[in-house]
Amino acid sequence: MSIITGTRFTEKLKASSGEQWNRVVTHRFTKELAAGTIDREVLKKYLVQDHRFLDAFVVLLASIVANARSLSDRIPACQFLALITAKENTYFERCFESMNCSSEERKTIPDAACTTGFCNLMRQVAQNGTLGEMLSVIVVCEWTYMSWADLVKDVTVREDFTTYEWVDLHSGPEFEGVVS
Amino acid sequence: MSIITGTRFTEKLKASSGEQWNRVVTHRFTKELAAGTIDREVLKKYLVQDHRFLDAFVVLLASIVANARSLSDRIPACQFLALITAKENTYFERCFESMNCSSEERKTIPDAACTTGFCNLMRQVAQNGTLGEMLSVIVVCEWTYMSWADLVKDVTVREDFTTYEWVDLHSGPEFEGVVS
């Protein structure tokens, strides 16, 4: 799988999503996140939901490791697993602390419909999907993240880690290497 | 699961293996490895076979990540996956280079019976086993490794990385944390 150097199949899938792709990667949310002007209540709501993806995402990525064809295919996914369970996981924990959002408060907030839907999709594909289906689900996550982060990274205001660190986690050569 | 602080079940399993455990962790191989006196042809044979476990081991550990009960249970296994696919994998690659053992030569060497048997066990448990079965298989690997490495680490001769690095990879607080 190579996206950056242009695997035709993933490029075709991207093209078939039409304007929806651009709506995702140029959303008001990502612009305000980079500018640091995002309403912190909006950011908090987002992070509470997004943190719930993390666990399902780890399950899916670990299943890709287990089902990949060779050790050399498994290695980059293992390194990425370590990254998201360290730097990315502590980003959430530090944000919740700085926002005074306790784990008790978080437990009272129900899943948004898209959280339920997407987490279920990730877990189902991890359990019963083919390697190709697993890769399709994970590629669309990470490629859209990279695309929005890449668009805003040069104008990101670096005052508050709760905004700029989320851009940094999804841009730069290390993350681009993961997606490719 | 906590071994070092004394989960009774794993202690009982260990006790039920009787003298076999001690034979494993005090084998002539590990003493000569630590002394640096091991016949390099014996070491090479061992490393060729042991490198074949690595891939099956990664599959098993990734399956444990995917099947663990919570994100906090998954995190240490993800960090260990990153370690064995980086430092441990390059240890093998550097050894084979220093021993002039090309990948072509390695392909001509058949699996030892125990390699076939144990790799098949790891892959089968990863695919069809319960979480408990997966943990049983992986614990016995890493706990015996830690036990022999712990016995020899203080007398290890530090002249040739092909011998001492294999001890270092299986001793010390970081590895002890993984096993626990």
From TrEMBL, chains A, B:
Residues 20-176 form the Thiaminase-2/PQQC domain. It comes from the Eukaryota. Gene3D superfamilies: Heme oxygenase-like. One of its GO terms (biological process) is thiamine metabolic process. This is Thiaminase-2/PQQC domain-containing protein. One of its GO terms (cellular component) is cytosol. It holds the Pfam family TENA_THI-4. Substrate binds at D50, E88, E142. CDD domains: TenA_E_Spr0628-like (cd19358).
